[in-house]
Amino acid sequence: MMQRGSNLPLVADYNQVLVVDSIRRHSKLSRVELADQTGLSSQTVSNICRRLVEQGLIQESGRVTGALGKLRSVYQINPSSRCAIGLHIDPARTVVALVDLSGQVMDRESLVNPTTDNPAELIDAIVSHVRTLVDRHDWSRRRLSGLGVASPGPLGMDEGTVIGPPNLRGWTRVRLREQLEERLGMQVILEKDTVAAATGELWVDNLTSKNFAFIYLGAGAGAGIVLDGEVMHGASGNLGNFGHLSGDPDGPLCYCGGRGCLAVTVMPSVLVERGQNAGVLGALNIDSPVEVETAIAELCRKADEGLAAAKAIVDSAAQSFARAAANLTNMLDLDTIIFGGPNWRSFSPTFMQVVPPIIDKLHIFGSVHGVTVRGTALGEDAGPIGAASLVLASAVSAHPSRLVLPI
Nearest 5°: phi and psi at 334? Predict the structure, then answer.
């Protein structure tokens, strides 16, 4: 949904952000097109474009012939004018990336998480890697908008606290945002990994759906939700936990009392145990996120190669996720389901065969609109790109909620 501007001087800053966001979303726009899309006057658009060129946020990219044969200047975003650092904390590994305004990764650092239960060790490593990235690109200091952090939940958003994620041992109540801000001296935005992934998808692939679920496949699984082009957060910022949606009505009894919940049927550790019981996978430490991630890749590879026992396990997982995705689609009236996260590359061959027809069959609005199923546009760096986009979107993305006029 295209947002509309206001010609009131009180909202000049909002209007400037609105123009930047419109140009970013559409690659190239003339001032006439900007005025039409934003509802701002031609003079207001001209003044804003002049300021934005002076600030280096946008740049002229040639001219086009208008309706009456008059040449019009067109503008595009200057990707290197702003950047952000994206930090993705996953139980298996942590990735830090320097990302430009277009969502492209310019540089990255990856580290295997310490095996101890002491959060301070990982935080020390994060601080070191962030400083390394900034030092390696000294120019980024002047253009750096901040650090975005994508973390497993639950999170305490008011305090910027990570509160006991199931797969991050020892992280009982860690004031992560405060620690990183104090040690790095920059703005830090903390969100759940699912919210960050959805934000990144909307940021990088912004001319596709505005109503989608990003199903994140990592050490756990969850969903980021976008409705009418806005990323949903929920009452506490922890929206997206769907482990107790049923993917198999005939599945095992869950500890919540339900049957066939995703939490007890398709989480990576569960699939790996099934693979071991079927003789597909060898011995490994089921409590090690790194070993589980490696085993998932092996399980999916054997399924792709046609090993019947492995294929049965991965097909069953795809069917369960498809049913859960169909429930989200029907409940929220979505038109797109996007899969991504650290394990997506391994799952994608099977999922892209199994999931779409099941969603088509279960979609109750099929006579009104279809549902697209696809993989993320962010590739393997969905986590850090999504984290960086939290900062970039905060800086130059127009949201109606920011338009608050003083009384």
Answer: -90, 155
